[in-house]
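Try this one yourself first.
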């Protein structure tokens, strides 16, 4: 069916801002962007939807998240008194992921992805861990996030040695099995690794041995200072160099955080064209260090933005990325509009496009119909070149009400409601599952 949404404000993700515009969808793609006054004669058979008072924009990409953390909201881990980043993992996240079972893996992914959709996200790049429910866990994520809800996503299993060789081997097997599955433009896979400090050389050699040539890894790099300290002490080299020795710095590889890497490591990432993803709110919450945004962008490194599982609001994350740069550097010009635009509206679509093999991130005729509509009546002129200012100082710091969301033309949200899901029943089930998950915490 051809659909037509009339009377919209439209931002194409680039420099084009239009008012009184109609967006026409056909076969999962954008078939037309025209003035509403001409839309009926150009697309007379399309089913019309009124988009008055709404801004249409490209669906957003979250380039690093952990859907497995969705049921941690309101949870208390006790005792909790970490003094290092590793102790945050030990006292909180590694307790939570060990308590996940197949049921909680599913509901955690579903509610996390639903909340992402409510924040305008249409593509998620997930890093999954459930050490006591590893086999087929990535299929469970795909079935809930992609098949049931309808988002696009990339998945991987967060391999580590922390729970012994049997779990390590299960993690490798899950990544290998999932990487070998037939993929579509809606789903991609990576080889997940937790971090350099939780994998031995033997484990990395096994990854290097079985990762397909055209696949990348997804790993935390130098999130806390201890990753580099441990790598130098145990392996006599820096983390990025170590990954490169195993041939794992690739254009499809995502290195999350990279807070404590040195200049030579940044040069190496640039040479290999690997991807770096910044997660400002998580970094601030864990008090782990400063991200050298300028140093990555200056080198031409594809530098994207993620939430690291801490919420799903990419526009708020972007706003935080900007003010964090300004505050940390004592420079109000740092974290500029150009730098922020690069993170969320250039790099993130480029990362999704690299992994999924389909063109993500622009509203243009012929492009996949991945877009969202937000309630937005601009109180000041909205025109070419200032859409990002409206998002940052309008929606990010006030409210961002996403009313409608489409992925490849499939409606996910319509008029603020999920199209195919019973949200109330899913949330009731989620509360039950979360309560039993919390009881299982070690
Ligand atoms: Zn992470």
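Now uncover the answer:
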């Amino acid at each position: 069916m051809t659909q037509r949404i009339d009377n919209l404000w439209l931002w194409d993700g680039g420099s084009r801002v239009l008012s009184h515009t109609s967006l026409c969808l056909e076969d999962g793609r954008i078939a037309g962007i025209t003035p509403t006054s001409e839309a009926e004669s150009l697309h007379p058979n399309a089913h019309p939807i009124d988009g008055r008072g709404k801004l249409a924009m490209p669906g957003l990409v979250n380039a690093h998240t952990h859907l497995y953390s969705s049921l941690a909201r309101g949870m208390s881990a006790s005792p909790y008194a970490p003094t290092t980043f590793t102790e945050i993992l030990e006292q909180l996240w590694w307790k939570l992921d060990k308590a996940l079972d197949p049921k909680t893996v599913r509901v955690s992914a579903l509610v996390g992805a639903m909340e992402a959709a409510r924040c305008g996200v249409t593509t998620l790049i997930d890093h999954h861990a459930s050490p006591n429910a590893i086999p087929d866990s990535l299929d469970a994520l795909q079935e809930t996030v992609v098949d049931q809800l309808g988002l696009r996503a990339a998945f991987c299993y967060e391999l580590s040695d922390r729970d012994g060789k049997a779990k390590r081997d299960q993690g490798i097997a899950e990544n290998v099995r999932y990487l070998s599955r037939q993929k579509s433009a809606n789903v991609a896979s990576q080889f997940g690794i937790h971090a350099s400090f939780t994998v031995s050389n033997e484990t990395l050699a096994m990854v290097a041995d079985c990762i397909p040539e055209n696949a990348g890894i997804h790993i935390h790099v130098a999130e806390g200072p201890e990753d580099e300290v441990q790598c130098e002490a145990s392996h006599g080299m820096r983390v990025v160099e170590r990954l490169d020795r195993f041939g794992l710095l690739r254009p499809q590889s995502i290195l999350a955080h990279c807070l404590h890497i040195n200049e030579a490591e940044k040069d190496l990432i640039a040479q290999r064209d690997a991807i770096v993803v910044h997660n400002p709110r998580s970094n601030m919450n864990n008090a782990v260090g400063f991200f050298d945004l300028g140093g990555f962008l200056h080198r031409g490194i594809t530098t994207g933005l993620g939430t690291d599982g801490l919420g799903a609001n990419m526009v708020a994350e972007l706003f935080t990325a900007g003010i964090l740069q300004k505050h940390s550097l004592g420079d109000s010009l740092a974290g500029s509009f150009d730098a922020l635009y690069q993170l969320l509206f250039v790099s993130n679509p480029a990362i999704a496009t690299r992994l999924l093999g389909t063109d993500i991130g622009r509203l243009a005729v012929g492009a996949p119909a991945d877009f969202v509509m937000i309630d937005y009546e601009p109180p000041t002129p909205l025109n070419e070149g200032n859409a990002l200012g409206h998002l940052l100082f309008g929606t990010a710091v006030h409210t961002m009400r996403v009313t409608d969301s489409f992925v490849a033309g499939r409606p996910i949200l319509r008029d603020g409601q999920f199209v195919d899901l019973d949200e109330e029943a899913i949330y009731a089930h989620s509360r039950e599952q979360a309560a039993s998950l919390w009881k299982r915490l070690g």
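Discussion: The two ends are 52 Å apart (CA to CA). The mean pLDDT is 96.
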